[in-house]
Specification:
Number of helices: 18
Helix content: over 70%
Low-confidence stretches: 419-431
CATH topology: Growth Hormone, Chain: A
Shape: globular
Distance between the termini: 74 Å
Structural class: mainly alpha
Mean pLDDT: 81
Number of domains: 1
CATH class: Mainly Alpha
Number of strands: 0
């Protein structure tokens, strides 16, 4: 108990706006596993078509960057807290649209996917800006460590409880044994949570970015390297959101198993991640990043070699640790680069948040496109078995790119650039 009070006092030592943002994200953390895991499972159960699941995800990823663009203009007129709230609430609307479809088809699934993409666009654009404006380089490891602690725990508890609820609905005859009714009840709970998180974020005093141009086509070389890192991250994101649901529904078959697999090792990893965020220094980010990508590649290898329930278990256990580790390292690196490049180029920081989303989009589209290509040219089974391994191997390039990015942010590299860009000294006659 003394240790818990000590950690609470440490949390209280941070600025109020940072604490409000973390509490908002804690509540919304109970929503994200439902969106990431069970919406894909719902599409898979009602269509029995893995390509329909990927089509839904492509629609989501298409809606995100264009909503980032719209958000940039809306920030000139609407407070960032309202836009952040709208993003959270819209996720519940998207789920309601999906559950109201009588029979799943590409048009209906695509519409629900676009709405979810708009939700993510409003949520992530404003969340990233608020995280950037309420933290400093010294506090970001703690911020993302604590946030990841929330998300990892909810990714364990929520899928397990919802999976048990959906499975029990079918087995015990609740609501007439209709599992889709169980999904609709879950959607109602999601709505309630988004409302609560929206109320909490309005307790902060957040300021909008300064009204300035945010669309540019030429950037500093350091930002171009960061964009390559974003493309590689997007490549992994494009498939891992729906991969767990598709693999479990195909190889295991029940939502309850989906929740149970998510729970394997989750609580232990959550406390480990909190400790990493609490203790790690900025110099440790590359090491954390490398461990995350190696774990993901090993999980993809296990799935490809075994391609059975045991392989799914190993992959999910690796993913449960690799994904948050990747975020703990990636987002502080991203913000360090934004701080550095925005000072050099004298631009609005939101310009870089907006631009980075298109790097993510290219990577996500490539990741989903790879799966669809393998599924159409070869087979669904081949795509489910080997796409993760291919993406995991390509992802290892991110370690080299991240090293180059961090070296570009070093005081030595920046001092050298300042020296090269400085105007020549005047030549005095007679010298």
């Amino acid at each position: 108990m003394n240790r818990l009070f000590q950690e609470y006092r440490h949390f209280q030592s941070y600025p109020r706006n940072m604490r409000i943002l973390l509490l908002t994200n804690l509540i919304y953390a109970f929503v994200l596993p439902v969106i990431d895991v069970f919406v894909g499972a719902y599409v898979m159960r009602n269509s029995q078509d893995v390509k329909m699941v990927v089509a839904y995800q492509l629609a989501v990823y298409t809606g995100i960057p264009f909503t980032f663009l719209m958000n940039g203009f809306l920030l000139r007129r609407i407070n960032v807290k309202w836009l952040y709230s709208a993003g959270m609430l819209l996720s519940g609307v998207s789920m309601a649209v999906m559950m109201s479809l009588g029979q799943l088809n590409v048009v209906g699934v695509g519409a629900a996917g676009l709405l979810m993409g708009m939700s993510f666009g409003l949520f992530w654009a404003n969340r990233d800006f608020l995280a950037l404006s309420t933290t400093s380089d010294d506090t970001r490891n703690y911020y993302y460590g604590l946030e990841t602690f929330f998300y990892t725990n909810t990714y364990v508890v929520v899928p397990m409880l919802i999976g048990m609820f959906i499975e029990a609905t079918g087995e015990r005859g609740w609501f007439g044994g209709d599992r889709n009714t169980a999904y609709q009840i879950v959607t109602g709970i999601v709505f309630l949570l988004t409302i609560i998180s929206s109320i909490v974020v309005h307790q902060g005093t957040f300021e909008n970015p300064a009204e300035a141009e945010f669309i540019f086509f030429r950037y500093h070389w350091l930002w171009n390297r960061m964009q390559l890192l974003a493309i590689l991250k997007g490549l992994m994101q494009g498939y891992i959101v729906t991969a767990p649901a598709m693999l479990v529904m195909k190889l295991v078959g029940q939502e309850g198993a989906l929740g149970a697999i998510q729970a394997v090792g989750g609580i232990l990893s959550a406390f480990l991640l909190y400790a990493i965020g609490r203790i790690a220094k900025p110099r440790h980010r590359l090491l954390i990043f490398s461990v995350a990508l190696t774990l993901f590649a090993l999980g993809g290898l296990a799935n490809a070699v075994l391609f059975n329930a045991a392989g799914v278990l190993i992959f999910m256990a690796c993913l449960l640790l690799a994904r948050p580790l990747h975020d703990i390292a990636y987002f502080p690196i991203q913000m360090q680069v934004i701080d550095t490049v925005s000072a050099i180029e004298q631009r609005n920081k939101f310009a870089y948040i907006f631009n980075q989303e298109f790097g993510f989009f290219i990577g996500r589209f490539a990741g989903c496109g790879l799966f669809i290509l393998l599924a159409n040219v070869l087979s669904d089974t081949f795509a489910l078995r080997y796409a993760l391994l291919i993406i995991g191997m390509v992802q290892m390039l991110s370690i080299w790119v991240a090293q180059r990015v961090l070296s570009g942010c070093s005081p030595t590299a920046l001092a050298k650039e300042d020296l090269l860009m400085a105007p020549p000294l005047p030549v005095i006659a007679g010298e």
